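Human
Can I borrow your eye for a moment on a structure tokenisation matter? Give me a protein, with the fold worked out from its sequence. Write it directly below this note and I will take it from there.

Assistant
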Amino acid sequence: MTDPEGKTIVERRAAAGDFDAPEWFVRRFPITASLGEAQICSGWKQVGTVHLVSHSRFAYRALWSSTLEMIAALSLAGLVGGYLGALVLRRLRQPLNAVIGQARAISERRFITIEEPDVPELKQLATAMNATVTRLKDMFEEEAGWLETVRRG
């Protein structure tokens, strides 16, 4: 606080240093507080001026706390997203493995049909593969019958 001529009447200073945040964080994100001034008057007579600069410790405390909360929230969201992604992949993997097994069986001249999965895209694939298996099975049975007829005749 200064008098009208600018002479210091009262001065208080906070201890420098303690920011309630890590040193690297304070260096990485510098915060400067601007000066606030207010006139002190008694009636029409000016008694003095108060000059105030806020300590940035409170801002660093809030910023550091928010940063930690954000990291925790993003980590939790990542874990939940990874778990849900694993569930989706597991749901897709079983029907895909069934289609792969069906394709391998065809190459071994075994004609099996699979259940149609609930996944719309894979349902179309399973339907097409089952139709192919049925057509191939009928075609091979017809060829076998024709060969048997030729062999006997």
